[in-house]
Amino acid sequence: MLSRLMSGSIRSLDRECNCTVRLLDDSEYTCTIQRDAKGQYLFDLICHHLNLLEKDYFGIRYVDPDKQRHWLEFTKSIAKQMKSQPPFTMCLRVKFYPPDPAALKEEITSGI
């Protein structure tokens, strides 16, 4: 019975991985996600953590082992996009600059 419980917890650990996302102020947000989690899930976690409502201007970027930068695609699995092993490290970045920054509603967004 004990070995069955232990093997179940080991299997669940295989399905989870740690992610660290460097935020715009250079602080870090660390979380555990399911291995099959899509990019949108992680982005939503970060936006919730920051209480960020104007999401359209931001994205998550990562660097592959060949030092190439990529935007995390929200519709695809995070683990399949990353060409490295967990823990995964990524950065929240400004993806689009608004034509009229004064029209932004949130203080966190208007500081870009």
TrEMBL record:
Classification via PROSITE patterns: FERM_1, FERM_3
Gene Ontology cellular-component terms listed: cytoskeleton
Domain of life where this protein originates: Eukaryota
Domain annotation FERM: ranges: 17-112
One BP term from GO: actomyosin structure organization
InterPro entries recorded: FERM_CS (IPR019747), FERM_domain (IPR000299), FERM_N (IPR018979), Ubiquitin-like_domsf (IPR029071)
Gene that this sequence comes from: FRMD5
Native organism: Myripristis murdjan (pinecone soldierfish)
Pfam families according to UniProt: FERM_N
Taxonomic placement: Eukaryota, Metazoa, Chordata, Craniata, Vertebrata
UniProt cross-references to Gene3D superfamilies, sorted A to Z: Phosphatidylinositol 3-kinase Catalytic Subunit, Chain A, domain 1 (3.10.20.90)
Full protein name: FERM domain containing 5
